Amino acid sequence: MNKRSTKIDERIREIRLFLLDLDGTIYRGEEIVPGAAEFIAHLREKNIKYVFLTNNSSHSAAEYVTKLTRLAIPATLENVFTSGQATGIYLSQKKRGGRVFVLGTRALQKELVSYGLVPSDGSGVVDFVAAGFDTELTYAKLQTACELVDRGTEYVATNPDFVCPVGGKRNIPDCGSICSMIEQATGKKPYVIGKPRPEMVEALCSKFTVSPKQTAVIGDRLYTDIAMGRNAGILSIGVLTGETKREDIEISPIKPDFTFSSIDELNWFFRSER
To answer: Residue 176 maps to which CATH number?
Structure first.
């Protein structure tokens, strides 16, 4: 646990936009992290903006709003930005109406369609292969993706996460693990759209008219959440309720500015201001 310090107080007081990871930070599966709801309540009371910034592309933004609401976390579409949405923006800017083979869920395919992209079964002309966290994965889809990537079709991934934390302190394979299979078969890696790239942060800072100095990310993964914070020049806060353990931070070249056992520890800042 961090000791209370003037430095931490000063930095948190500057923040006007919090970018919050979901899996492993706000909840694990259907289990909300203790203190997460209180933290959001404090932000709303102080009129501080917050966006749930997730690499998990297996669900649409609307589905995340539904889940957060079910867990008693106030959220609208304004409060959610997914790697699936970021991928839709990226691909539609490259080719509006481009045909894309989606190695992902039906929710991801629907998200990409909302940006004007056309889903493909892999036959005929295919402009893109988009891999995501595919909880509906079949060997046939994996085989088609490998064939297209082998042919030189432009290949992107929504995120690099190897695992997704679920209830009971368990993890399941995420997009990075699926892409590892494709790499073993084809020798090719995707262009990754989501965290740790800084573009998602830059887009949100512009949208909410805040500077990087006024922005912070809170997350449990060093190679995505914290690396994105570093890449975007914003405050990075690590929590130990997901994939990363304290010993991982000690040996990693990617370190958060501050580390807490959970998001609940951040509530002291707001309690002290009352």
So the answer is: 3.40.50.1000
Which residue carries 């399941």 as its tokens? 172
| The pLDDT of residue 6 | 72
Which phi and psi (to 5°) does residue 200 adopt?
A: -65, -40
Last residue of a domain, one of 139, 167, 192: 192
Residues 183 and 201 in one domain: no
Four-residue CA torsion sign, 87, 90, 96, 102: negative
Q: Are residues 214 and 180 part of one domain?
A: no
Nearest to 239 by CA among 265, 216, 214: 265
pLDDT in tens, 239-266: 999 989 999 999 999 999 999 999 999 9
Identify the helix (H) or strand (E) that includes residue 27.
Answer: strand 27-28
Domain that holds residue 35: 6-55+196-272
Contacts of 22 (CB under 8 A, 6+ apart): 52, 54, 56, 64
Helix (H, G, I), strand (E, B) or coil at 161: coil
pLDDT digits (tens, 9 = 90+) for 20-69: 999 999 998 889 999 999 999 999 999 999 999 999 999 999 999 999 99
Q: Are both 156 and 202 inside the same structural domain?
A: no
